[in-house]
Fold this protein.
Amino acid sequence: MERSQLTARLWRIQQSLQTGLIERATPTRLALLAALAGEHTLLIGPPGTAKSELARRLHLAFEDGYYFERLLTRFSVPEELFGPLSIKALENDEYLRLTDNYLPAAAIAFIDEIFKANSAILNTLLTLLNEREFDNGGRRQKVPLISVIGASNELPQEEEVDALYDRFLCRYVVHPVSDEQFPALLELQDQVAFIDTEDKLTASELKALQEAADAVTLPGEVIEQLIAARQFLQQKKFTISDRRWRKVIKLLKVSAYTNGRNEVCIWDCWLLQHCLWDEPEQHVVVSNWFNAHLGISSGFHPERLEKLVQTWESTLHADKESTVQAVDEGGYKLYISANGQLTRATEEKTHAYRDGQPLYLSPPDQDDRSHQGIGYTVDELRAQFFDDRYQQTHINGKWQHIDEYLADPENRFIRRYVNKPFMKPVQHTSTFIDSRLKEVCKAQKMIKKFEKALATYRDSVRDQVSEHLWIDQAFIEIAEKSLTQACHQAAALVSRLEAINSSYNQLIDQS
């Protein structure tokens, strides 16, 4: 069968399955795609939201196989799913189930309230879902199961059903019909879905489709997109098993193949919003991320590039404001003295005064001779350290008169002034500036390349998605808006780098 014929058949099947249903296009497409990939779909929502109807209609897409449907309760027994025990076999000491018209014989199955499966059912059900095998008596037999649609009013709380929950690759929350579409629901005529026999898929065609899809390749841009998605999910503490990632790839390949392509494209990844969550609240987060990042995360990281440009702006400012200490003709470094004169001296010493009075240090037997940096006037010295009658104090074993003390230059309070270095702007060499320009131009070219790629994605999304079998058409406007915004971000970054480039060229003229 030619690929174009397959795509056309699947399109007709989709339209038939959606006949007479309101706001159920997405879960219908999702369940069909999951079935083609050999995966299972979980529908979460209140009763009366067409969950079982979707499963019954899905069965119509396949020519071969039996349809099985069952509602589980806490008291359900294995016989309800897997068939009764054969009395005749028991007479021969064989533990054999009669599986005709039960789950092991079904191609498509609908299991309502699936998380009420008890431990007596779970292990057998897990093996059947994952391995397509059923232990019956002393032998393990293959089953014709294509896909199971599980349904539940709520998510499981018990850890014992976590493994069962993980078996459903595609998950969708089904809501009652919206207020906008409620009038259409009231006027809806009962319509029976019908699929032409020639359009139905046979078991051999399904097998051939899956084998051909295995050969579909993953381009680098898709791998980068998946890496970005995984990093985002890890940041959000969403746990996605390696097994689920492997199954996701299988789903993407089937999506690409059924759309007539030999490699997965970026837009196929939109489907992953239905595979990478555990709680309904997480689905909103995942969906928003894919809507905002499809076609953008492949190398274009606005936050990182913003930091890159900010770094260059800071570097330019530092280069423009950079200074070096000036030297005189003899090569000695120059400083600015307290009176504003240039000097070689790193510091200056001056006699200290307070209110015009000279200041002195206290006698050497004091711990802090400077009096916490304010010194002593003559009157303060006389009052605190010299006797009133003889005007003497005892220093180093001798009596010393205040006049002798004041005459000793070692006792003057000296202020030290550290001269500031005399700085002048750095005259950058042309080699230095050329190296800066080279790096700035490199960043410009990189972002321009991203800008061009983003524009290409933006201009192609409508053509590629409008004919996509599995993607909601509403995504087109979301993607175009997101990509346009990203293009504007890239253009703004390029403009800022151009300004940096211009400033460095001005530094050349000043050198």
Observations:
- The chain has a mean pLDDT of 91.
- Residues 430-466 form the longest helix (37 residues).
